[in-house]
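Q: What would this chain look like folded?
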Amino acid sequence: MSVAVPVAEFDVAAFLKTLTGRPGIYKMLNEKGEIIYIGKAKNLKNRVSSYFRTQSASPKQQAMIAQLASIEVMVTSSEGEALLLESQLVKRFMPRYNICLRDDKSYPYIFISTEQDFPRITFHRGAKKKKGQYFGPYPSAGAVKETLKLLQKIFPVRQCEDSYYRNRTRPCLQHQIKRCTAPCVDLIDTSNYAVDVENSILFLEGNGELLIGRLIEKMENASAALDFEKAADFRDQIARLRLILEKHFVHGERGDVDIVACATRAGVACVQVFFIRKGQNLGNKLFFPKLSDQDEPGKILQAFIAQYYLDKTVPYELIVSHEPEEAGLLAEVLAAYAKHAVTITSKVRGERQKWLQMTLVNAEHSLQSKLADRQGIYARFLSLQEELGCRELPKRLECFDISHTQGDQTVASCVVFDREGPVKSAYRRFNIEGVTPGDDYAAIHQAVARRYKRLKQGEHEAPDILFIDGGKGQVAEAKKALADLEINNVMIVGVSKGPDRKAGMEKLLLTDQSQPLDVTPGASGLLLIQHIRDEAHRFAITGHRQRRGKTKKQSVLEDIPGLGPKRRQLLLKQFGGLQGVAGASADALASVAGISKDLAQRIYEQFHNPNGH
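A: My prediction, written as structure tokens:
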């Protein structure tokens, strides 16, 4: 059931009289219809009424109520269901006055393709559609890559792409440095290879001691059979494994545990999580939740745990630095979601207390670094205000750059900074079409027009300053594009490259001045301009390379009669890209489903004798 009250008719007393006492969630909206806060309640009537008792309202609540234009409520069957719904909606809408977790990335896993005769072990992110075994989640791609690197040194299981593996005719470099047993050219049989795969799985499952016991037994058997070279190999394997176990395994832990610590200061919070799976320390990850006010660590952890774990694998235990506000309810909801018991505790001893203290110290250090960075960026914004003569301190900056190769495949980039630094989620690229190749003026005009047409449609907020990487011509085109859209409250600044393109020697051009702006040499605001200009350039170059590479892949194969889109994609996948297709023999090409011998010959000749047909 959902109830909404429009702005013109919003009567607090009348609304509260009709409000139910059942559990549910409530959404507070401003006059624009934007959700500014989402909350959950065991008793909706009591909870919502509390906001209008002025003697008990906090400054944050007072500011929120001042913007309130309507309230929507949704009744649920239980408080636990309300908590689940609240967390999902907060992650979706990111309301201004909620504690919001910025965490939209899927977490990486290690995948072993156990269905194959010679399984591959590899990095995996996304849906688990392939048949095989998955291990994780890991906190970062770096943690996965480190584990894969360690595994390859101990158990030489292949990590190469299947397309690369199927087309080998001789062992690769990984075999030469003893990190692969070369199943691609039959230098190992399936039974011996399966032993390395099984050992890798034991390691990833946290059964390190069992694995070492088996290797010791094999070493002794080899020694008894006078096969001393093989015994020495097992000895070295055991030594490397012990070294890794000492570094990565947590003493006293043999289960799935996450250690979560929160530090907060000056309106900024840092949450640090250490991930332990099967007793193995998979690494740690930092989070900086969005706060609207100074909040207590227990309240922050309540919001963090609910938003973070309700779409991920939940461990059996969470060890926390501060007790969440509703730890019991939170544990109950997580257990129902995970289908196993979940405990949340802040009172631990011994080895666990040491780990919790270490996690909290890490959170505090990371928070200190974040605050130092924020202060540095804020100082640069102050300097920028002074150098450009802005009446108010800028909040949002945007910068455009153009990239192309002799006018071909032109890409424009737009990057966004706020007072905390780059806002990468707001970056955009524009493929420029319909302009004369190499016409940067027309490209800038098109990109700015497309970007700010979306602003007029309410898709994003306006910047205080728009930087254009270029001179007077580019600045004039940006101004014209904004004028066409009737946007006249954005300052436009051209960043013209200085002598010899040296950093720090740029000239700043304003639309209402004929001469470059006089700036203070070495001013920190100039560093901010260099930063955003360089970031726009990097983002444009990356986009241009991707577009050029895609076109290159398509154009060579598109010239071949009889090779349609599906077959082109199949070839690229089978041979691992255009380079693999180019290096393949006609017979290898013909082995792909749907590629006849005649077509394979034409493909081969396209790369080896392109002018011969």
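Residues 1-8 have pLDDT under 50 and may be disordered.
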